[in-house]
Amino acid sequence: MNTYRLSLKRIALTAALVFSIQITQAQITLTPPVVPGKPSEKVEVEVPPAESIQTDISEIELDAIVRVEVDTKQPNYRVPWNIGGMSSGNGTGFLVGKNRFLTNAHVVSNNRLIYIKKVSDPKPYLARVISVAHDCDLALLELETDEDFKSAFGGIEPLYIGGTPKLNTTVIAVGYPIGGERISVTRGVVSRIDFRAYSHSGVDNHLAIQVDAAINPGNSGGPVLQNNQVVGVAFQGYSGSVAQNTGYMIPVPVIERFLKDTEDGKYDYYVDLATSTINILNPAQRKALGLPNDLSLIHI
Questions:
Q1: Does the annotation count 220 as an active-site position?
Q2: In the chain, which stretches have pLDDT less than 70?
Q3: How buried is 30 (Cβ within 10 angstroms: 0-12 exposed, 13-18 middle, 19+ buried)?
Q4: Which residue in the list 131, 135, 137, 184 is annotated as catalytic?
Q5: pLDDT score, position 90
Q6: pLDDT tens for each residue of 160-212
Q7: What share of the chain is helix, strand, coil (3-state, %, to 5)?
Q8: 102: which strand partners?
Q9: What DSSP string describes 121-162?
């Protein structure tokens, strides 16, 4: 009897040992070999800087961000021989070079008089448009006399043009929107980066960045900042009856293209093919055009 029990124990011990060896072999097989002297590969994830760094505008000179006041004369295209109506409004601009202020084209369209005001100086300075791009809603202004620029902006550094911000990072919109006469600062995050229509021309589509910072009438042409750099120009948004906290800014690639294009004093516009397309998804339409019915085609 004792010999029988001893045999059973030996069998159980042998089975347990074999099972343990099989598990160990399986684990060794599933574990990838480690090459001596070669570190394991690590996936690097780019982490955006802290929000306190993103919203830092301590190096920005607010005197470089100006209020643009415009008197306009709206033409009457139905009866062009009549005098159009006079109106006035204001927007925002900022210094990008020696006697060069960037703003939106729709801020200075149909202008008759343009005045620029600083934060710390109530004196209006007469300005004029030197380049305008209605297709991407940007314009360059200058003060009419070099003496005015030297006396008002001689020691002020232009704002630095940065890059494209990442999604879900914080930006600061600075300008002169409705609700007061002084400069205003609002904060929001980058919600979307997409191609969409620019409302000024109504027909041009370019890259645009959606933010939930408050962008209201008067903010147009003002800089959108991140980490002491310009990452966009505020230019349009939905009213509260359509959508909430939905504003848009012109991104850096569009800004840099405009500034590069106007270096010679002339704007050459974007290339426009003047074509439209229609998806041919209807089999009857494909048959009428003599096209095969096995592909997705477009009609130009």
A1: yes
A2: 1-46, 294-300
A3: exposed
A4: 137
A5: 94
A6: 999 999 999 999 999 999 888 899 999 999 999 999 999 998 888 899 999 99
A7: 20, 35, 45
A8: 94, 140
A9: ----EEEEEEEEETTTTEEEEEES-HHHHHHHHTTPPPPPB-
Q: Which of 146, 135, 145, 129 is nearest to 70 (CA)?
A: 129
Closest CA to 115 of 86, 148, 73: 148
Evaluate whether 168 touches 190 at the Cβ level (below 8 Å): yes
Which two tokens mark 14?
Answer: 């042998």
What letter represents residue 28's amino acid? I
Contact between residue 278 and residue 299 where contact means Cβ atoms under 8 Å apart:
yes
Distances (CA, A) of 139 to 48, 103, 107, 133: 32, 5, 9, 6
276 is catalytic: no
Amino acid 85 reads G
Q: Give the C-alpha separation, 233 to 225, whole Å.
A: 9
**What gap in Å lies between CA 214 and CA 223, rounded to an integer?**
13
Domain boundaries 62-153, CATH class? mainly beta
CB 148 within 8 A of CB 172: no
The reply to whether the predicted model has a pTM over 0.90 is no
Pair type for strands 184-197 and 205-211: antiparallel
Fold observed for domain 161-264: Thrombin, subunit H (2.40.10)
Residue spans per domain, the chain: 62-153, 161-264, 271-300
What are the tokens at 262? 């106007």
